[in-house]
């Protein structure tokens, strides 16, 4: 192995997908070793964070993308979805509507995703069992029918959060779906945390758009 090859790093892009308020941003914050915030602000537009993780003998850069789940942003993220290697479809176990709308998000993703992309269905807010509207069995069945892995999580209790991200990252490695960043170019610069945030005019304009 040459010195340049030894310095190459593997980039895995993971996309969080789901309705607004299901806890996508909280899951990412907890995974990135930040504290859980009960009133986490809603994501406006597209943001991402990165984390270096060792999986077996490979060290990968996990680039986790978080998109706003509001209707105003539904037409925006497809360009960001396209180059992802894995997808976490997130619903709120206390909100049946968020579970039913996974099918709509799935349709958007399946139109443009990579052939070997990996999928994980997440039922979040497991700490709120008394308010549960979606049974564990319903989640498992949907995942099985749609060739997804399945986990229930709680960002608040840090339950299965790391497991969820690591699971889909490992699936990507096992299926050889990742990008190789060359040590001699500028690709690593693009892996830094950042994002696209819409202003009020962008949001208003987007609300007026319709699919043809």
UniProtKB/TrEMBL annotation:
Transmembrane segments: none
Keywords: GTP-binding, Lipoprotein, Nucleotide-binding
Stretch list, region Disordered: 189-212
UniProt superkingdom: Eukaryota
SUPFAM superfamilies tied to this protein: P-loop containing nucleoside triphosphate hydrolases
Pfam family for this entry, one: Ras
GO molecular function list: GTP binding; GTPase activity
Similarity comment: Belongs to the small GTPase superfamily. Rab family.
PANTHER family: DRAB11-RELATED (PTHR47979)
Name of protein: Small gtp binding protein rab8
């Amino acid at each position: 192995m040459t010195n340049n090859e030894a310095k190459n790093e593997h980039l895995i892009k993971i996309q969080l997908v789901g309705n607004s308020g299901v806890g996508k941003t909280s899951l990412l914050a907890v995974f990135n070793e930040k504290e859980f915030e009960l009133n986490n602000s809603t994501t406006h537009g597209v943001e991402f964070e990165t984390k270096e993780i060792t999986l077996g003998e490979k060290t990968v850069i996990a680039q986790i993308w978080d998109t706003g789940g509001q209707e105003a942003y539904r037409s925006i993220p497809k360009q960001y979805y396209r180059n992802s290697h894995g997808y976490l479809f997130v619903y709120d176990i206390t909100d049946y509507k968020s579970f039913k709308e996974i099918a709509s998000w799935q349709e958007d993703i399946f139109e443009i995703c990579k052939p070997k992309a990996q999928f994980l269905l997440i039922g979040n807010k497991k700490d709120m069992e008394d308010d549960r509207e979606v049974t564990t069995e319903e989640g498992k069945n949907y995942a099985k029918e749609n060739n997804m892995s399945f986990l229930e999580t709680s960002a608040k209790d840090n339950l299965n959060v790391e497991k969820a991200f690591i699971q889909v990252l490992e699936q990507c490695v096992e299926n050889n779906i990742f990008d190789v960043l060359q040590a001699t170019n500028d690709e690593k610069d693009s892996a830094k945390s950042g994002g696209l945030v819409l202003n009020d005019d962008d949001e208003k304009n987007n609300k007026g758009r319709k699919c043809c």
